């Protein structure tokens, strides 16, 4: 299955007018981090399906910044674009985390962060306070020498905080060393229903043209709906189409980006991606009624962030000689030995768990404008009012 990029960052819009400028700037910085993370991953994993949650990665780095000092702190600050000790920034981010935990019967959004600490290890009281105030943060004392028990403890916490989406983050053998002192885990969960559902009866098996030109059969969903639609060009004149599929409540939308020409490679669009271009798209898209075809799929991916974060300028935290986390504990020479990221997404007829593209149904059913995702595309979930991105997905099948 082709690469799928799925962004799921979230921005809160619940601040008073005096914070509007800061809100806009932090929203831009969060989007910039998400774009950089996405571009770094896709350039190292060419022609593969990708699903990542930039929000989860940013939450972990933000908490680590509270415990970092020296160049370790500076590198994290530069990657994220902000200093978490800035009181206005800290207040904004904490409020954003609270807003991300608001749910209703149609939409569920939840962020959480946990620190699993070796029993008996002295932790800075100031850092412990930051943990408990950060993204539904909590501290759990454990014994890393009991490998399977600790892995089970972490996995159960992850499963509870991802709606059961991610069931296994770490196998027991991952704690093969007796030197492990801390495991920092953050989660991001989103679930919602489409504003206009895809009909199960309309889903058909149709061709999807892969990046290498080969053709595979996929279950393609169909809907006729009012959507935001735009046609754009890159700086090198490659044309592409963007369609926003809204979820119930109109607070979050899936933005599907697909090359207009079958010969245009997805990378030519991805390389031009910035927070400003995303804002430009959303400001210029027009409302139009059209037939939409989207593949139904389920995707999961796991990656080692030690191969990703150094490309974003964050490297000292992996080096035992350079890492400086004295803000966490003065009594230990701490460094990050493992950093992994696992994400899953399911897009289906009812909501975010399904995606499909069906050109045959469209041509048969209607003469109106057609959007058909029958070639590699990427999409992201975006909150309407704030512009926050939740997940990024590339689908090349």
Distance between the first and last residues' Cα? 2 Å
Mean pLDDT: 77
User: Which architecture name of the domain at 54-191 and 303-344 does CATH use?
Assistant: 2-Layer Sandwich
User: Which fold does the CATH topology of the domain at 54-191 and 303-344 refer to?
Assistant: Antithrombin, Chain I, domain 2
Question: What is the percentage of strand-forming residues?
Answer: 25-35%
Q: Regarding CATH, which class of the domain at 54-191 and 303-344?
A: Alpha Beta
Rg calculated over all Cα atoms: 21 Å
Q: For this structure, what is the CATH homologous superfamily of the domain at 54-191 and 303-344?
A: Antithrombin, subunit I, domain 2
Strand tally is: 15
What structural class do you assign from the helix and strand content? Answer: alpha+beta
Could you state the order of secondary-structure elements as H and E? EHEHHHEHEHEEEEEHHEEEHEEE
What is the molecular shape?
A: globular
The main sheet comes to:
10 strands, mixed
Low-pLDDT segments, ≥5 res: 1-19, 352-367
User: How helix-rich are the residues, as a percent range?
Assistant: 25-40%
Query: Total number of helical segments?
Result: 9
